[in-house]
Amino acid sequence: MSLFGNPKYQYRETYFILFENENRPSEDDLTKAISELGDRFEIKEIHRDQNDQFESMTVVSPSDFAGIDFTFLEGEEVMEQVAELNEQFKTTTLTGDELKKIGKISKCRARFDVLHFEEITGNADDVLDPGSLLAVVEGIAAICDGVGIDRESLTIL
Fold it and tell me: What are the angstrom distances between the C-alpha of 24 and each of 31, 74, 114?
């Protein structure tokens, strides 16, 4: 079940991790990467496709009042998005490291959609910490040699 179906969580934003198909991490790789980020993260659900490959995962960080849904996509939709991103990035100023990462995305035919949610507790002191999302995106991007992108701001991680 996605966090969209949980009334305790409110959707905030979506990031992408783009990578080449041959770098698709296994479920074990993903769960290990999440566990290496520390005990503040809890894997709640994992779904597999008909070929028993990782398809989606829900991760929560109660101490950060955050939840994250991951979904794997590949193929034509990703290729179209890569083309759109390449066009959009032509109008932005990029640093050397960012240029290197943009060069990588042209080969990408797979991605993780990383949907970020805020846990709504009813307590005004309980504030979402966006650091958990950034840690997870960077950790997962590292294991699949991918590029993390904030789709709203066109920020490359």
Answer: 13, 10, 15
CA dihedral of 50, 138, 11, 46, whole degrees rounded to 10? 30
Q: What is the pTM of this model?
A: 0.91
How far apart CA 72 and CA 70 sit, in angstroms, is 7
Identify the sign of the CA torsion 100, 28, 75, 88. Answer: negative
- Condensed to tens digits (0 to 9), the pLDDT of residues 33-87 reads 999 999 999 999 999 999 889 999 999 999 999 999 999 999 999 999 999 998 8
Q: Which of 132, 17, 33, 147 is nearest to 72 (CA)?
A: 17
Which domains does the chain possess? 3-156 (3.30.1400)
